[in-house]
């Protein structure tokens, strides 16, 4: 199917939303949002095959609109996510705009893990661009906050929390970064699967203490880490 045929599908879906239009629109039963969604999805898939990402994204946005009109917030969020996933191939701004709308729906309905995953995806998008330092830090922090609210989001919380700490350290927020590295180190010690990573977290915290330049505090911190983790005590670093 050509892009032209996909465009015709969009027109057909548009007519479903309008319910036929004109004086006799009442005969068609008004807007048929479910049917429109199905046709927009067909069009979106054809646009994706043609690598027409903007057009495909627009179709998913229309699907989200129809889902909202049908009263399905869950489907609306899913379609907004689809739109973002397509648009990120050509526009980070366009992708983030749709992701943010989906995040609002997910968080309002208590789907914190889904919201966290989208926030983490946004952070990774900005990270890949290597120029959006402020945005990386902001979205990793927001993602961590969402994962913290979810019972099954512990590993992702740790991942995002540590990423946030890295960016906070680069911004000179040393106390904040140290607090996170120490917290994650102590938490790792309480988990048999993670305990070997505790030394790295304490090492990062110790390095930041050195950067801060207070030798007394550094020595106190090192003594604390050695008492907590024997592996740190035997470390040559």
Question: What would a concise description of this structure say?
Answer:
This protein has 237 residues and is mainly alpha-helical. The chain has helices at 3-18, 33-49, 53-69, 73-87, 92-108, 112-129, 133-148, 154-170, 174-189, 198-212, 215-228, 230-233.
Keywords for this structure?
single chain; 237 residues; mainly alpha; Serine Threonine Protein Phosphatase 5, Tetratricopeptide repeat; 2 domains; elongated
Task: Describe the protein's architecture and organization.
It is a single chain. With 237 residues, this protein is mostly helical. The chain has two domains: 3-170, Tetratricopeptide repeat domain (Serine Threonine Protein Phosphatase 5, Tetratricopeptide repeat), CATH 1.25.40; 172-237, no CATH class. Helix content is 77%, strand content 0%. It is built from twelve helices and no strands. It has helices at 3-18, 33-49, 53-69, 73-87, 92-108, 112-129, 133-148, 154-170, 174-189, 198-212, 215-228, 230-233. α3 runs antiparallel to α4 (73-87). The chain is elongated, with a radius of gyration of 24 Å. The protein starts with a helix and ends with a helix. One of its GO terms (cellular component) is SNARE complex. Pfam families: SNAP. It is a peripheral membrane protein. Keywords: ER-Golgi transport, Membrane, Protein transport, Transport. This is Alpha-soluble NSF attachment protein.
